[in-house]
Design goal:
The protein is of the alpha+beta class and about 750 residues long. About 15% of the residues lie in helices and about 30% in strands. It has twelve helices and 31 strands. The strands form nine sheets. Strands 9, 10, 11, 12 and 15 form a five-stranded antiparallel beta sheet that branches. Strands 2-3-1-4 form a four-stranded antiparallel beta sheet. It has a four-stranded antiparallel beta sheet with strand order 16-17-18-19, with no helix packed on it. Strand 29 and strand 30 form a beta hairpin.
Amino acid sequence: MATDLRLRESDEIQGDIIAGFKKDNVSLLFLKFEDPNQARDWMRQLAPQIATTRQVAAFNEAFSEARKSSGGDDPKGLKATWFGVSLTYEGMRVLSATDPFEKAPPTGSGLEAFKEGSAKRAGALGDTGDNSPENWLFGNGRNQPVHAVLTIASDTEQDLVAAVTAQREAAAAAKIVTIFQQNAKTLLGSRRGKEHFGFKDGISEPGVRFFDRPNPDNPEEVDGHPGTRIIPAGEFVVGEEPAPGSFTDYPDWARNGSFQVVRRLAQDVPGWWAQVSVKLKELKRAKAVPDTATDEWLAARLVGRWRSGAPVCKHQDRDVPNDPKASSDNDFDFRDDLEGLVTPLWSHLRKSSPRAGLQAPNPSVPPLDAKDLDGRRIMRRGAPYGQPFDPASEGPGGPDDPRGLLFVCYQANIQAQFEFIQADWIDQPDFPPGRNPQPGKDPVITEADNVDFESRGPDGAIKHTPLSFQQFVQTQGSVYAFAPSISTLKALADGRLTGRSQGQQGGQTKPQTGKAYPADEFLTVPDQWRTGGQTQFWACHGDQYRKISVADGSSHTDRTVKGDSRLSALPCFQGVGRIDCVLPMPDLQNPGGKSWSWVFHSTGGKQQYRSISITCGGNHRGTLERPDRDLTAWNSLNGVERVDCFLPVPDQQRVGGKSWYWVFHTSGGRQRYRLISVADGAAHADACERTDRELSQWSSLNGISRVDCFLPVPDRQRVGGKSEYWVFHGEDYRKISVADGSGHQDRVVNDDRSCSGWDSLL
């Protein structure tokens, strides 16, 4: 068992998969793309906002420590809003403009399940009749296909509402339709941590190798959580090592991602409890249960745990709600209860996770060990929706008020994990196999018309009492999706997948496959421009930056000067998740040992800018000089939704007290450019000198649909009346030149090359 925790530092794996958002307030937006180009642009803005495992794990650990210090109260000063995104097969097709699978997925595989989608596979999972797709609110596979699922989770309802509003507006601006919004929320008071039937939920989640700390005395269990097994990470994260015998042949784009199942499960709370009462009377008439048995007693056996979470196998007679250890107890199995006389074989707990104690059809074969079932585990991230049941309420909380469970799980193989549990265990009467009578289906969430209640008669022999349960949990929506790595999200934002090039068709630029672009923006280190034949830049990518250098000379050798650091480590970048672009203030470069810049960045889908300064020499200390303001403060940017990059007009810098720039910006999902000027002086008055034009006006940008950033070639600025720049777009870059003079003629100096040619950007 490995003891390193490298996955806790991952900035590639989305944060909800193995770290878990663990927020009280959640909304899922089910989205449909109307315009592929605008959808890609939306993804480009969204990708830097997606929470990573490193971010979520660090927050959760700090939150947990703060709770311990406060005696169990939630720390008021610690809060966050997290974003996660997953894509259906059709959603990936739209963004990549190609089939994500070069060849048909293997028959019976999880990849096939992902491609087909949950609606097509509903019948095999018991989703028939009232549960069938034609009755679903989303994911029915008909007129409103789901292309993406955006998860928004927050500590406070107020922050959630603000984030959802911003994301819905950003989606609408990109012609993305929100076809359904599902809200969910932790129940309050004594119901906290429980689902609507009243039972504590989320207790039995597995540990993950390379993420959870192993117990030094028993490295197969999570430290401090007896009985919680550590499962191979590859069962949840594609590309990590899975359990023996698990599927491993995944496409490159799947690496560091996870397949997601989302289901809306409506719960008829009064109906379910009324049925429990009826069945208890039947069992008492049959002398199959003690006379002292109550509705709570029988309900606990249906679930496998009492309301508090205490396992029935350890607390057979009554609940122990005041024992915190019992309520989170996973340190048990069913080796000593193979017949299911204490915890029934058909209980939800045993049906969904048999643990050690699953008996083979041949009684002479020892029960399976828990590790033999590692390949069937899933990572659940569900939450209840709707108001708690209140029989006296005529409004929210009343019997007819919608309520249920928003079921979410992650796994590497939908077929072998979620579908197998649902179809082969939960919905299979003959599981555990080889028994007569058959145990029956899971009566908590399915229609179980022939359940075998086993008890011991007065003579000591096992007595079989048949029971029939109606279904009081209804499937009202289901989606199969994939939560890609951050790199794959950025690649999809450029219409790409990993590893293949689509080229061009009919003179039209067509999205290509490959890795995401390596940098969002370059910022020149103020006092390191062509010093000793080297120029240093900060290369910003996502929420990180690194220092690189580029040498003068024909080869322009590049190297990494200092590795990645977090933007948040600098006071001037607090609150900045990703830098979109930077514009140095033309008359404030190194006066008094400081260089000033405007920094443009996006928050909640809306771009803002701030003013910062960086000292020259030493540690290059950054200071926030003016906090964020809206783009509307710039007269020259009227009508601009987001600035992507600036390119200085080479021979028009500080001429007559003005500096001119071409501004490349995205509006309506399409990139254009305009010409603006910025005056010297405290006000830095700006003006739009020429209105928007199409990129096709630049002969040097032919075939590019979006420029990510420009980097000046240090020793080729205004040499012979020309200035050269590297143009980064997607995974490629090219070199262009722009001439001085009124026409500012431009041309390609070097054709596109892969960004992997830059050692400093790998």
